[in-house]
Amino acid sequence: MKIHGVDITNPDKILFPESNSSKLDVINYYKNFSGQIMPFLKGRPLTLRRFPDGVNHQGFFQKNASDYFPDFIKTVEVQTDDGKNVSVVCNNLKTLLYLANQGTIEFHTWLSRIDKLNKPDKVVFDLDPASGSFNSLKNAAEVIREFLDKKGIRCKLTTSGKNGLHLWYTKRRTQTFDQSREEVKHLAEELIGLYPDLLTIEMRKDDRDGKIFIDYPRNSYGQTTICPYSLRATLNGSIATPISWEELSSIKSSQEFNLGNISKRRRH
DNA sequence: GTCTCTG
DNA sequence: CAGAGACAACGCAGG
DNA sequence: CCTGCG
Ligand SMILES: [Mn+2]
Ligand SMILES: [Mn+2]
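Above: query sequence and manganese (II) ion SMILES. Below: predicted holo structure tokens.
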């Protein structure tokens, strides 16, 4: 079977046993939502998370493009602390479908683009809840939004598809990753001054006291965040989904949207 | 999912 | 030939 | 140096 010229193997293999979703379901999801996900993938180094035998089996992260990946897949060399990686870049539909056929469930993207790897064009406030209470997480997102709004920064919102929320905005590519991260850290410290019982940047889990962790180190060089519209390797096939601020009030968890209901979601 | 190494 | 292993480091905080 | 963290 071929879709857009890409060989699809084992289309009936079940990758999400709980929702009975097959490999073809995954590939069709990425095909049908390519218009939404591609703008977020284009031009950015990727880390893949693959589950060739389904999310109930062992999966693996992949930072380096496999030698056997076809020529239509773009790659980029990125410097690491000790050497380099050859990252995959998903610039077209064929690449997206090929990687999906490879069992890629999750696409994690850099905060910078390949033509200026050392200057991020995105800032993310990665909000990681200690556990349970999604309501306090929503509250945290709201107060951070208002805080940034007063500084003239308009941010957007994405469910991570697991437990947290990502609040993010774009900027001109003038700062290094170190500068960007330090700026987010300072903003987070200011926020903690205002909401000491709600937010924390303590690195040790034991020191977080049930508060919401603003994971500012996500803004460091070489780090990735889950790409908007990426599937997650959860039993229900949840999806990292951009949502409006109005929509935030009505959702009950970060896994609100999944393979089964994403198509019926009201558009914004 | 595919390659490579080992027996 | 079948079966097992690899496929991710990494960048930072804090002690 | 080490471990924890995501
Ligand atoms: Mn998170
Ligand atoms: Mn995080």
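Residues 161 and 240 of chain A are 4 Å apart (CA to CA).
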